[in-house]
Amino acid sequence: MNTHKLDKLKRPLYINVYDELLLQIHKGEYLVGSQLPSEPDLAKKLGVSRATLRQALVLLQDDGLVRNVRGKGNFVLESSFNQEDTQLEKLSNPMHKCHISAFDQVDLHYRLDPQTEHTKQVLRRESATVVALERLYRVGGELHAYAFTFMSMQTVERLSLDLDSKERMLDFLENQAYVDANHGNIEIKYTHTVNLADRKDKLMGQNECFLLLETLYDKTEPDYPLMYNKFYIPQQFSNLKLNMSKG
After folding, report:
1. Is 180 within the bounds of a domain?
2. For labeling, which of 18, 91, 127, 230 is most exposed (least CB within 10 Å)?
3. CATH number for the domain including 146?
4. DSSP string of 191-204, one letter each residue
């Protein structure tokens, strides 16, 4: 008979620190959006070493409860456990589902490009002129996310889109396109390269970004994409979730 018993695991100290910080957040001692005390002050308050505190903070970050902004500190996030609208399976703007920030400014720029083999492939049609649009998502003036879009001129004309109206184009790209679309697909990649049109702009955390490649289709032209999007979401601001089920 096998008499071997499993060794009892001693609960790591950083788990206790994690639980204590989680309790304080749930009790409202640290509100959503607020900054936690500096690591030296917080470690002193909890009576632990900074190394132990950092282990607990990493666990909170992994659980999507705390975000670390390099050079600034740790910030409390809204719990993602009850957010039913953050699933990628649902047809809506993935930037708003997968980025933890509430943007206070979105800049929009566009240019007209000649067709290339790449645009022919992603838009799946011949189009002498292609519209290239970029969106820059800012929080407090800092660039927190970036999106690049290709649309065929045929689609722009079919939908009577006014490229010179920033407000209307932005509403279409951010919202209306997802109302008009009846299906789409997203491919998720990871990238260390983000090429912005304006080299003066710098995306926070741009060396570690999730890249979401999205293609949208509508009923009017089911064989041709409504638009092709590339969403760059820095890892430190990301919240990507997928539902799983047997079927």
Report:
1. yes
2. 91
3. 3.40.1410.10
4. ES----SSTT--BT
Same-domain pairing of 47 and 99: no
User: pTM here?
Assistant: 0.73
In DSSP terms, 229 is beta-bridged to 149, 214
Same domain, 171 and 151: yes
* Domain region containing 158: 84-237
User: pLDDT tens digit string along 15-41?
Assistant: 888 889 988 888 888 888 889 999 999
CA dist., res. 25 & res. 14, Å (int) = 16
> Quick one: pLDDT at residue 1?
44
Handedness of CA 220, 222, 224, 228 (dihedral sign): positive
What pLDDT does residue 237 have?
Answer: 87
Query: 206-242 in b/e burial notation, b at 16+ Cβ within 10 A?
Result: beebbebebbbbbeeeeebbbbbbbbbbbebbbbbee
Residue 126, both tokens:
């011949």
Tell me the CB-side half-sphere exposure of residue 200, using CA atoms within 13 A: 0
Whether residue 115 sits in one domain with residue 45: no
Amino acid letter for position 150: F
Indicate the residue type of 95.
Answer: M
